[in-house]
Amino acid sequence: MLAADLFAVIASVALLAGVVFTPLGDIRVLAVVIGLPFVLLVPGYALVSAVFPRRGDLAPNSTTEISWVARIVASVAGSGIALTVVGVVLDFTVWGFDRTAIVMGLSVVSIVATGVAWYRRRRLATTDQAGIDFGAVRSTVRTTVIDESAVSVVLTILVVIAAAGAVGVVAEESTGEGSVIELYVLGEDESGELTAEAYPSNVTAGEPITAGVGVGTSRSSFDGYVSVRLERVTVDGDEVTVRESRRLDRIDIQLTPGERTTRRHTVRPSMVGEQLRLTYRLYRTGSDSPLRQVHLWLRVRPS
Question: What are the strands of the beta sheet with 239-255, ordered from one edge?
Answer without folding.
Answer: 202-204, 292-301, 273-284, 222-236, 239-255
